[in-house]
Amino acid sequence: MNILLLGSGGREHALAWKLAASPLLNKLYAAPGNPGIGQEAALVPLDVEDHQAVATFCKQNDIGLVVVGPEAPLVAGISDTLRAAGIRVFGPSKDAARLEGSKAFTKELCARFNIPTGAFGRFENAEAAKAYIREHGAPIVVKADGLAAGKGVTVAMTEAEAIEAVEACFSGAFGGAGAEVVIEEYLEGEEASFFCLCDGKTALPFGTAQDHKRVGDGDTGPNTGGMGAYSPAPVMDEAMVERTMREIIEPTMRGMAEIGSPFAGILFAGLMITKDGPKLIEYNVRFGDPECQVMMMRLKDDLLVLLNAATDGQLEHMSVRWQDKLALTVVMAAKGYPGSPEKGSVIGGLDAAAATGAQIFHAGTAMKDGEIIANGGRVLNVTAIGDTVRQAQAAAYRAVDAVEWPGGFCRRDIGWQAVQRETR
Ligand code: AMP
Ligand code: GLY
Predict the structure, then answer these.
(1) Exposure of 227 by Cβ count < 10 A (0-12 exposed, 13-18 middle, 19+ buried)?
(2) Is the CB of residue 149 below 6 angstroms from any atom belonging to ligand 1?
(3) Cα separation of 74 and 324, whole Å?
(4) How far is the CA of 281 from the centre of ligand 1 (A)?
(5) Which domains does the chain have, with CATH numbers?
(6) Which of 115, 118, 173, 120 is nearest to 144 (CA)?
(7) Is 187's C-beta closer than 6 angstroms to any atom of ligand 1?
(8) CA angle, corner 287, sides to 165 and 364, nearest 5?
(9) Other CB atoms closer than 10 Å to residue 8's CB: what's the count?
């Protein structure tokens, strides 16, 4: 089977690496890809926003399955265009992608189908939003409604901070994504990322991970798309997975089917494990980045077989096997991230880093005059596996230290919570 993978991040490099290992694969194409993905796939310079051009490419190259990495094309409806053209695609419809595309949509779904989440209000003007904040007090969470690359959320510890975030949203800090604001109860607990492979009817648990959202060591500084991750997440033991399926995922699958938007693809639940049980922070309709990188390191089964089964509505009788190991990834970012990352600095030492045994997934890299340069915010995902978190962490940082990149930085404490738990 020929596959077209859409995207250009570390998540897509990990997917390409895993798909390339499938005996069912004939030829792998990726658009637009990056130099790391180019080691596994033929890169094609398609404009992913031009859904019709993607469909034409698929017809011309006998593509048997399109795998969509990021959320933006899903929210814009690429699956619908491809399906209408008779092309198989792994990823939700535009209607189903509202689970990520609109926080307000998800909140309404939670209310209607009794899915546990924080109390919330939606506002289209600053005055009403501020009144709600004054009424409920801090800590409180302010979110731009639409897509903002993980940066549209302010966890405000004071009322003043919350009010400042509301003003930023309505003054256009997140463009169209901030035209509506969701204000939410602050949830206290341990965060976990939980993934399910879905085919419209069945949701199959598909791994857990813990992300590190803040840019700085000790979970300080602004939120990012994620600075590192490990899998599995220790809080998501068998009982918690079972409870999350029953209280959150299954009602979501039933609800989405009932409103005529059955969900197929990867359902990524951002959870807070509170003292009252799991609560939904948000849904994403794709793999996590960098969570995907650690999950692909542990997945024993053929990813292509699983994606095919999800695409064909055949998940009911499938199961998933994982290596009984821990995987950990450290994100190396360009200086300035998450504000304005500096582009163009040269990255060396990648062969030496890979020689330590780690997988170096490329995110925002480019090739210039035969050298790898930084071309985005999050640039490399240095990923390793071990029998304990501590071992995986040591192996990942050994590889990080072999990378020669003065223009980059990373957190030095990825996995700290899990290491503490191991040492207890
Ligand atoms: P989101 O983009 O909704 O996942 O939010 C980004 C991050 O903000 C989450 O991963 C949490 O760390 C934090 N966050 C979001 N909503 C809440 C909440 N209701 N309570 C506490 N923290 C939250
Ligand atoms: N790492 C969080 C995300 O992919 O949304």
Answers:
(1) buried
(2) no
(3) 33
(4) 6
(5) 2-91 (3.40.50.20), 125-179 (3.30.1490.20), 190-317 (3.30.470.20), 326-422 (3.90.600.10)
(6) 173
(7) yes
(8) 75
(9) 26
- Rounded Cα distance, 188 and 182, in Å: 18
Q: Which residue has the tokens 């993934």?
A: 195
Count the residues in the chain. 424
Q: Which residues line ligand 2 (CB under 6 A)?
A: 150, 211, 225-226, 284, 288-289, 291
Predicted confidence at residue 153, as pLDDT, reads 86
If you take atom 3 of ligand 2, which residue's CA is the nearest one?
Answer: 288
364 CA from centroid of ligand 1 (Å)? 24
- 287-334 confidence digits (pLDDT tens): 999 999 999 999 999 999 999 999 999 999 899 999 999 999 999 999
Q: 267 alpha carbon to ligand 2 midpoint, in Å?
A: 12
For residue 282, the ligand 1 atom closest to its alpha carbon is 3
Ligand 2 pocket test, candidate residues 208, 289, 361, 411, most atoms within 8 A of CB: 289
Note the pLDDT of residue 3: 98
Alpha helices in 76-228 (DSSP H): 78-84, 98-101, 103-112, 126-136, 159-170
Instruction: Please give the mean pLDDT across all residues of the chain.
Output: 95
Residues with Cβ within 8 Å of 158's Cβ and at least 6 positions away in sequence, in order, are: 138
- Looking from the CA of residue 290, the nearest atom of ligand 2 is 1
